[in-house]
Write a structure and sequence with these properties.
alpha+beta, Aminopeptidase
């Protein structure tokens, strides 16, 4: 594998999100309302010229916090999972957030992704909750 991490378009991000995060659901469910906001950044992972992974970040503070960014739509195609690509995407996200004076990256993590995020030094910061049509999640965060 020759993995390259770079900024991508909304369309590219949705192409990877849909089959991984919205399996058996309409493809439009892979869109998020912030996709085309001016501060939203989509990151992609490529194996040579083929896009295989994505993560989306944008500024979003929780309650009275400041300089927080949110991670959404992180997905790696099944054949490429467990090869360190997710960690490479997050490293790129951390670098971008630091360059914009961000202090925290947070996300709503699916139960099956919690161990991945823990490995990347995220901590659980909520009780378990359910997102309709998707399933159980924990909110997790990492100080940058």
């Amino acid at each position: 594998m020759n993995i390259k991490i770079q900024q991508i378009t909304t369309t590219d991000a949705i192409t990877i999100r849909a089959p991984i995060l919205r399996k058996n659901q309409p493809p439009e469910w892979a869109s998020i309302k912030e996709d085309d906001d001016e501060n939203t950044i989509h990151i992609g992972g490529f194996d040579y010229e083929t896009i295989i992974a994505t993560a989306t970040i944008y500024p979003e503070n929780r309650e009275n916090n400041m300089n927080e960014w949110r991670l959404r739509g992180m997905a790696v195609l099944e054949n490429y999972q467990s090869n360190g690509i997710g960690e490479k995407l997050l490293t790129k996200c951390f670098n971008i957030i630091r360059s914009k004076n961000g202090k925290v990256l947070w996300c709503n993590a699916r139960i099956k992704a919690v161990n991945f995020y823990k490995k990347c030094e995220f901590t659980i910061c909520s009780e378990k909750f359910n997102i309709p049509n998707i399933g159980a999640h924990f909110q997790m965060e990492k100080k940058i």
